[in-house]
């Protein structure tokens, strides 16, 4: 459904050019959930926003359902119907909602823009509210009258309003309590099953990604360093960065927690303005060699459809 090839997005600042997304390539198959993980600042959100054309890419290709949309403007995507087929759910469930609009108006707006029949809008708003677990009577309330979990449900209903096929979820539960996170994730899984949706799920919570994702891509400093099926990656991580991330997942068993080995990374995360040459991870890698400064660290298949950029794996 989606193919991203050598995607690049830079931001010019007074301090220099930020290499936010630096040659990212992956594909998302119809009906699956691809998890995109990595620490804060690695470029996950920028990747999602560039794919959906909230940011214009500097180079690379974005192919959606066989059509190259890299050069399309927002207006062209709207006229061609692609904007309706691709939607995004944002991280902050309050900042992404207009405080001057009611929940019903927020959900109704994308349907008006995409020219849905006016006489069907009210019924669709009620249906969407029910679909995400809210009462129809809540359509007249404003965002500040809802809890964080309820606001995120409104954001999900808004994304579903135009009947999309592909949804980018940008850390949709990171701002919510743990109990509410589980409810939202379970609801997203049910919606995917019932509506035939395809997800790009961006998060830094590795345990949640394992639960919801079909495949997982690990991102570091603007590049994908490992990509594999979910169970394959968690049971057999290859890249030193992935191994360190997985070792940091809390274990609810004290005995197992005490006995396992924690991989601690030394040093600070390099600046995205002046990223390291060669392998971008070599400045913090416990296995680094002198030649890592000049090596061409590209994703390669190590077997079993398990891609890794470390040349010494």
Mean of all residue-level pLDDT scores: 89
Helicity range:
25-40%
Name the assembly state: single chain
Dominant shape: globular
Question: Runs with pLDDT <50, length 5+?
Answer: none
| Number of separate helices | 11
DSSP strand tally: 12
Largest sheet: 8 strands, mixed
What is the structural class? alpha/beta
Strand content: 15-25%
**Could you give the distance between the termini?**
30 Å
Q: Summarize the helix and strand pattern as letters.
A: EEEHEEHHEHHHEHEHEEHHHEE
- For the largest sheet, list the strands in their spatial order: 6-7-8-3-9-10-12-11
Cα-based radius of gyration, to the nearest Å: 21 Å
What does this protein structure show overall?
The protein is α/β, with parallel strands linked by helices and 313 residues long. The chain has 11 helices and 12 strands. It has helices at residues 44-51, 74-80, 82-85, 103-113, 121-131, 148-160, 178-195, 206-212, 230-235, 240-247, 254-259, and strands at residues 2-13, 16-28, 33-37, 59-64, 67-68, 86-89, 166-170, 198-203, 215-220, 223-229, 300-301, 307-308. The protein has an 8-stranded mixed sheet, with helices on both faces. Helix 4 (103-113) packs parallel to helix 6. The model has no long low-confidence stretch (mean pLDDT 89).
How are the SSEs ordered, and which strands pair?
Layout: E1 2-13, E2 16-28, E3 33-37, H1 44-51, E4 59-64, E5 67-68, H2 74-80, H3 82-85, E6 86-89, H4 103-113, H5 121-131, H6 148-160, E7 166-170, H7 178-195, E8 198-203, H8 206-212, E9 215-220, E10 223-229, H9 230-235, H10 240-247, H11 254-259, E11 300-301, E12 307-308
Parallel strand pairs: 3-8, 3-9, 6-7, 7-8
Antiparallel strand pairs: 1-2, 1-4, 4-5, 9-10, 10-12, 11-12
